[in-house]
Write a structure and sequence with these properties.
Elements lengths: L9 H8 L21 H8 L1 H7 L2 H6 L11 H20 L9 E2 L1 H14 L7 H6 L2 E3 L11 E3 L9 H15 L1 H11 L8 H23 L7 H8 L18 E2 L19 H10 L5 H10 L5 H13 L2 H7 L3 H33 L21 H13 L6
Parallel strand pairs: 1-4
Antiparallel strand pairs: 2-3
Helix pairs in contact: 2-5, 5-6, 8-10, 9-10, 9-12, 10-16, 11-16, 12-14, 16-17
Bound molecules: protoporphyrin IX containing FE.
Length: 400
């Protein structure tokens, strides 16, 4: 029998879907300790940048012993996924698109696929491991901003890697108040519990949240230089397969999948749950290839977060309620949310042009990252994709 999920309390939602009204989708892994046996893996992940620069990363990884038990604890599993996917990224992309190994050694491939299966995630560096579970506060009582945060592990590629990660971490934290807002909006637009004043109050939180997210996003330029991002950082978030060189069929994970190459999408903030939840809560629909991509990237989220998106999609009748509501305040509050999402998506396109399109047109660009010149790290023909997502959002404005 299908589980009845309507009317879950906020606390039940936080527990069931691993979300928090304080930190949103972020997961605090800063105090997680591993069994001793994983220390050699941790050591390499902690020095990834250095070992990639020295070109010793492949030898060091090949010498590891991967015949180890996967921890039972979810946070330990997530940390293990993080460590193993950072190692994988360094191992594969050490020399850009040159000399790319076709196989990931068994000592990483086997534990990585096991822990990914346990988490319901994919065995590649993805948003939950690179961003959501990859931060720590310097001073526990200090503010949640650039000055008081560290990235626990960094991708190689030199300057800006940490700032890039922290920009996303802080944006996720700024999203946190929207969790309660979308749950309240859903509740106060449900038959039997409808309450226009409470609905307007809930919806009014969302534009403020998006405005804070935009303010943080603009700070990316303070620590990540666009051409350097394009030439040196981006390659480490790239996936494999889909006919794209240098691994057109995908990567062989030795000892798993019968040693047949596996395609995987690269890391992208398209795997963030934030915008997908807003779309779901407010009834913003995408179609065709865009919908297919957004559905597919949910497999790269934590299983609980992906379930939260589905929960909101199934349960929210906010848009339907607002469409049929005669209260102008409700319609205006809803439209303000759509406009705010649109502003975020416009800023996002502006940044994508600044950090990908413009640097990709330089004559002196890094020629060892040409395979991802025309596509996002998540593999879309990105401008066409993002423009269509924006049109879908625009189309949701309701007549007032
Ligand atoms: C310079 C920084 C960024 C760049 C270069 C960038 C690039 C891209 C690209 C190329 C895509 C298309 C999918 C793909 O092929 O990967 C995408 C999608 C997306 N990105 Fe970003 N991104 C950046 C920062 C962010 C941030 C900070 C967020 C906030 C969470 C974000 C959220 C999204 C979302 C939600 C999508 C899916 C489309 C949508 O729902 O609007 N991105 N990004």
């Amino acid at each position: 029998m299908a589980e009845v999920m309507t009317n879950l309390s906020l606390k039940q939602i936080e527990e069931k879907f691993l979300v928090s009204t304080k930190t949103g989708f972020l997961i605090d892994c800063s105090m997680v300790k591993f069994p001793e046996c994983w220390s050699p893996f941790e050591e390499i992940a902690a020095h990834l940048k250095q070992y990639v620069e020295e070109k010793s990363i492949r030898r060091k990884i090949e010498e590891l012993n991967g015949h180890l038990c996967i921890p039972e604890d979810k946070l330990q599993q997530l940390c293990l996924h993080k460590i193993l996917t950072f190692l994988t990224s360094g191992y594969v992309w050490q020399d850009g698109e040159n000399d790319v190994p076709k196989r990931l050694p068994r000592c990483v491939a086997v534990p990585l696929t096991r822990v990914s299966d346990a988490l319901g995630m994919k065995p590649i560096l993805s948003y939950p491991s690179m961003i959501l579970a990859n931060w720590q506060k310097k001073d526990m009582n200090g503010p949640f901003d650039f000055s008081n945060l560290n990235a626990m592990y960094q991708t190689p590629g030199g300057n800006g890697a940490e700032w890039f990660i922290l920009t996303h971490v802080i944006i996720e934290q700024r999203f946190a108040p929207a969790i309660k807002a979308v749950i309240d909006a859903m509740k106060y637009s449900t038959e039997g519990q409808a309450d226009d004043a409470a609905l307007v109050t809930a919806l009014n939180v969302i534009p403020n949240v998006l405005s804070e997210m935009c303010e943080t996003f603009k700070k990316i330029n303070g620590g990540v230089e666009p051409a350097h991002f394009y030439d040196n950082l981006r390659i480490f978030y790239t996936g494999w397969g889909g006919g794209k060189e240098p691994l057109p069929e995908g990567l062989i994970y030795e000892g798993v999948y019968e040693d047949v190459p596996k395609p995987m999408k690269g890391g992208s903030a398209a795997q963030s749950t934030t915008l997908q939840v807003l779309d779901a809560a407010l009834g913003i629909e995408h179609e065709g290839e865009e919908k297919e991509f957004l559905d597919e990237v949910r497999d790269y989220m934590l299983k609980e977060h992906s379930d939260f998106c589905k929960y909101m999609r199934n349960e929210s009748s906010v848009r339907n309620y607002v469409e049929h509501c005669e209260n102008l305040d409700v319609k205006m509050a809803y439209n303000k949310c759509i406009n705010a999402i649109q502003s975020f998506r416009k800023l996002h396109i502006h940044k994508v042009v600044q950090y990908v399109t413009t640097p990709s047109r330089r004559e002196n660009r890094n020629m060892q990252v040409e395979a991802i010149r025309e596509t996002g790290t998540g593999s879309t023909p990105y401008l066409q994709f993002l423009n269509q997502i924006n049109k879908d959002t625009d189309a949701c404005i309701l007549p007032e």
